[in-house]
Amino acid sequence: MEFFLDTANIVEIRNAKKQGLLDGVTTNPTLLSREGGDWRQQAKLICEEVTGPVSLEVMGETAEEMIAEAGDLASFGDNVVIKVPLTSEGLVATKALYKKGMKTNVTLVFSPLQALLAAKAGATYVSPFVGRLDGISHDGMELISQIRTIFDNYEFPTKILVASIRNPLHVLDSALIGADVATIPYKVISELAKHPLTDQGLASFKADWDSLTK
Ligand code: G3P
What pTM was estimated for this model as a whole? Predict the structure, then answer.
């Protein structure tokens, strides 16, 4: 399973890269707005820093607007993936971008049928939001499982990119279900290596070694 970082923060991106945990990045308007400044400059900087795919989201409402924006965003780098909302217009844009050979990430997916529509439109990735579903007492991971089954049934090449991840358990469940990618906030990615028994074990090895050698 690939690890993308769900951020527009360059320090977080550089840290994850240093740890070898950066297969790609997903941004969205909220994440870019948190960084402030010139969003175009920030997005270009991210595209330069990251070797893998970088999702940049269109904000137009019509397919025509989205396709025009996609052309602009694609000029930011060869690794740009156009993030398109799961709306009827977004699906038209996804199909058109597919025909042009452009990669897309269809976002704001909350049902298995939405994911099926995105795959039929030729999406490169679909982004189901597990944390937001959990937040309204729906089972986010059940959605991932259903999409996995549908995509496997028909051998769709569209990758399942688990988004809106809130905790390490979401990452574990994504891997067990066989999702292709998890896009993870920096706070959660930092927690993945931690285990209290690792810390305890290390402390006792150190104490025993000190008693032997000092
Ligand atoms: O980038 C898409 C998704 O991961 C956003 O997550 O935390 O705003 O629900 P969140």
Answer: 0.96
Ligand 1 binding pocket (C-beta < 6 A) is 6, 26, 28, 127, 129, 131-132, 163-164, 183
Active site residue 95: no
Q: How many domains does the chain have?
A: 1
Dist CA 185 CA 34 (whole Å): 14
The pLDDT tens digits for 156-178 are: 999 999 999 999 999 999 999 99
Q: Which atom of ligand 1 is nearest to the CA of 28?
A: 1
pLDDT in tens, 27-38: 999 999 999 999
CATH value at residue 31? 3.20.20.70
Residue nearest to atom 8 of ligand 1 (CA): 164
| Ligand 1 center to 151 CA (angstroms) | 22
Question: Are 75 and 49 contacting, i.e. CB atoms less than 8 angstroms apart?
Answer: no
